[in-house]
Automatic annotation (TrEMBL):
Belongs to the multicopper oxidase family. It catalyses: 4 Cu(+) + O2 + 4 H(+) = 4 Cu(2+) + 2 H2O. It comes from Nonomuraea bangladeshensis. This is Multicopper oxidase CueO. The keyword Endoplasmic reticulum does not apply. Monomer.
């Protein structure tokens, strides 16, 4: 992203080519013509305006995932930036059109966190993200700066997504996987057989034998990961979740990551001998999808980082949030012709809930399938899975929770920051495009 003034960026979405597989050219659609798009470094308390110019042949809508933003900057699926000369064919729902460019104003009034942005166009999110319309946005703040966390080269944001390729190097996306045939071969959404990290297949990172911070982001359309280190011998020390730092670090042997989720972890490579190649493994993946990337421990080095005993002072326990003023249920289920929430395929402008600004509510998610459930605007704490305490990796403020088949997941969501129209949806992007989405209005 090209900064053009204090707090202002201009980013052009355009078609370009990338060398992802050696010697082959992959046509992409990218923010600033790159895949992934540029990483935005944001600072709490410093609002930014991002002018997104659309030079693609299709409309787009940009959503900052995890962002606490006013509704007109949230990337509502029918709030479209249409390219010059594009003649709109309506789908029968009201659309807002910005000709060529839209300015998204982000207040950046939220704690340090790993956010990401991606296209959110009605009915077309999955294929447009697959072609490359996604990137990272890191929010930093004073509280995080005061912690002795690894930084600079020892902080590695890792945007993980899978793709399939045709023999000529182009991305292969099945016809009609989203928006066309419902169900069929693509019930589970579209998975690729090559895992990419920051747009590169099976990359190698040379690391010193010191602590590193890995900001793990699952930007895949549909693939879920269970990440492990091989050889093991040192844990992932989780310091943050989707929406920011935890109260205190928690060690995990493995990290599940559903589409849309983030995990912020420390890995201490001094546990390995110099020369060791450490693989980040996906225990859920078969064949080439079973490996994500490698770290080669190149040499010893001084380490002034530490694992802080306490991380963030934000309210972290349900008791700190205050009593829930309402309980609502959202049932994610396969319908006759679409994926549905409470029996309804998505209808823009028809909110399923009207929570009040400044309150907290318990939202209960149930499903007949795997659905990573995501809320815009509102961050939440996972209270329970099937009436029992949530998984250790569910801790902290989140915006996406993986709801497993026949599971009942209770979350305590806080509606803060802005009034207006937001959405909840399945973050399996093919399910989202097949209508598993709903509006809620913060009133
Ligand atoms: Cu990352 Cu509404 O999505
Ligand atoms: Cu979002
Ligand atoms: Cu789903």
């Amino acid at each position: 992203a090209r900064p053009v003034g204090p707090g202002r960026y201009e980013v052009t979405q355009r078609a370009a080519e990338a060398e992802i597989l050696p010697g082959l050219r992959t046509p992409i659609w990218g923010y600033a013509g790159t895949f992934p798009g540029p990483t935005f470094e944001l600072r709490r308390g410093r609002p930014v305006t991002v002018a997104v110019r659309n030079e693609l042949p299709v409309p787009t809508s940009t959503h900052l995932h995890g962002g606490v933003n006013p509704p007109d900057a949230d990337g509502y699926p029918t709030d479209l930036v249409v390219p010059a000369g594009y003649s709109a064919h309506h789908h029968g729902h009201p659309e807002t059109h910005h000709q060529g460019v839209k300015e998204y104003r982000y207040p950046v009034d939220q704690p340090a966190a790993t956010l990401w942005y991606h296209d959110h166009r009605m009915d077309h999110t999955a294929p447009q993200v697959w072609r490359g319309l996604a990137g990272l946005a890191l929010v930093r703040d004073d509280e995080e700066d005061a912690l002795p966390l690894p930084r600079g080269e020892r902080e590695l944001p890792l945007l993980i997504c899978d793709r399939s390729f045709a023999a000529d190097g182009s991305f292969r996306y099945p016809d009609h996987a989203a928006g066309g045939h419902f169900g069929g071969d693509h019930m589970e959404g579209v998975e690729g057989d090559v895992v990419l990290v920051n747009g590169a297949p099976w990359p190698v990172a040379e690391v010193t034998a010191t602590r590193h911070r890995l900001r793990l982001v699952n930007a895949s359309n549909a693939r879920r990961y269970l990440l492990r280190l091989a050889p093991g011998g040192t844990p992932f020390v989780q310091i943050g979740s989707d929406a920011g730092l935890l109260a205190a670090p928690v060690a995990h042997a493995e990290i599940p990551l559903a589409p849309g989720e983030r995990q912020d972890v420390l890995v201490d490579f001094s546990a390995y001998r110099v020369g060791t190649a450490v693989t980040l493994v996906n225990a859920l993946g078969e064949g080439s999808a079973g490996n994500v990337m490698r770290f080669v421990v190149a040499r010893r080095a001084a380490d002034d980082s530490a694992v802080p005993k306490a991380l963030s002072r934000r309210a972290m326990r349900p008791a700190d949030v205050g009593p829930a003023v309402a309980t609502r249920r959202f049932d994610f289920r396969r319908g006759e012709t679409a994926w549905t929430i409470n029996g309804e395929p998505y209808r823009p402008g028809v909110p399923l809930a009207r929570p009040r600004l400044g309150t907290a509510e318990v939202w209960r998610f149930t499903s007949d399938f795997h659905h990573p459930v995501h809320l815009h605007l509102a961050h939440f704490l996972v209270l329970a899975r099937n009436g029992r305490p949530p998984a250790a990796t569910d801790g902290g403020w989140k915006d996406t929770v993986d709801v497993r088949p026949y599971e009942v997941v209770d979350v305590l969501a806080r509606f803060a920051g802005h009034r207006g129209r937001y959405m909840l949806h399945c973050h399996n992007l093919e399910h989202e495009d097949m209508a598993m989405m709903a509006d809620f209005d913060v009133v």
